[in-house]
Amino acid sequence: MIKPFWVGLSVTAWLLASPAAAKSSLFTDEAPLQLVITAPFPQLVRAAKSGTNPFPATLTVTDGAGPAQTVPLELRPRGLTRRTGGYCAFPPLSLNFDKAKVEGTPFQGEKKLKLVTYCNTPSDQEQRIVLEYLAYRLYNLVTPLSYRVRAADVTYRNGDKDDGLKRFGFLIEDIDDVADRNKLKELKAASKQVKASQLDPRAAGRAALLEYMISNLDWDFLAATAGADCCHNSRFIAAKGATPATATAVVPLPYDFDYSGLVDAPYAVVPEALKVTGVTDRLYRGYCVSTAEMPAVIAEYRSHRPQMMALIANDPRLNPRFKAKATKFMEGFFAVLDDPARVDSQIIKKCRSPAS
To answer: Which among 146, 121, 151, 122 has a CA at the least distance from the CA of 134?
Structure first.
């Protein structure tokens, strides 16, 4: 029977002294984490509809490499649509750690991580969270200039006497870690402060083709929604020391794929300005600055086709219906890439101008 949705560590001296202790293998291991989060979830869920105030919590983690470890943390509801739109019974969460208290755990070196949670309890909703997780993994196959993710089986408990509710979720790598491993730095900018001509053409083309592949229209690599930092469902990384005015070869990092056709969430809608019927209708919205790079970018995606299809086919969490639907959806993407005429009409000639 499904229940309602809310239903100090010591460190050895060598670990403290080791430079390698700065980060764990959180996003290099692929085995799902086993997490138990205990927090006042009824209060958190009610408060999430109108704000993102923090709540005290504890997190118990097992990664298969050792005994369970429990750390204190602070939870914040995050996001906008899933948090305030009235579609989801449970909001996405931000996990905020005290670095000193997570040393020697899988979260060593982390300060803040996003956790993508369940939206509602029906099993088909959980299938969509798996598909969103796979969207990140698909992009990881193409480029290291992408957010890594870690799957987790998460049990949400309201207290020690609550059995809790267990659901699939996943953690998203912090942008500083993405930048560090690519020897770059996060570039913070206001909406439209960075121009298309400042984007790295190959990286921007890769990111735009990802959005086309999964049929996501809910993004922009240059502009942000009112009152938000740039950009809409993407962030920038660039050379260390660069500013919005001086940066070149700026790399957009896309995230948040729940509005994509691959996921096909029941609440997902097409942005009003775009003339497509539904979120499963692909529309290329990359910038023309990447046009010259698109043959190479398309070749990259085509070279990873076997791994991409295997990623979906071999995921044990997808049921046969969702696996077949996702496979067919991806085959539709590669059918376009295999046809030069369709590449020209549906991708190259659909790029957004000006390329300045």
So the answer is: 151
